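Below is how a single chain appears once it has passed through the pipeline. First comes the sequence as given, then the structure the pipeline wrote out for it. We keep one example in the README because the format questions we get most often are answered faster by looking than by reading.
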Amino acid sequence: MSHLYISWLDYHKKIEYLAAKIYQSQWEFNQIVCLARGGLRVGDILSRIFKKPLAILATSSYGGIKGQEQGKIVIGKSLTMTTNSLGSHVLLADDLVDSGISIDKSITWLQDNYGQEIQEIKTAVLWYKACSIFKPDYYVDYLPDNPWVHQPFEVYEQTSVADLAFTLTRMNRDQ
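Resulting structure:
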């Protein structure tokens, strides 16, 4: 498996580029739903740029060693949002489509639970892998060789609170 390493700067630039693509399409939406955890940052930044409310749907499918094994998709029982209703045109945001199963099942979940409100759902991701069964409406990079994407926040999956506390103690002592 090949690997793609993304810096914080590149990560944020990709979100900005994704926002520009959505804007240029002239599609109007009234709510953003992001898939937690990978889509949280993407959804948050898009929500700030477009000045649209953000709802969060918790999903999980990765585990195992270094969190790189895809298992059964688990979707939260409810959607967290601050608006009274979801709205008719929803932008579903995530970091990437790998197999495509998570985003596909999330759309089904939204339709099953909010179908009476939703007229249209469009999807937006940073990376679209060739192996995906699902093609997003908006994406930044198409990845024909399906690399493992190492995002800048992954370092925290290997970091312990004890290590952070030790580093902070040393930094304070050295000042």
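The longest helix spans residues 8-25.

See the next section for the split statistics.
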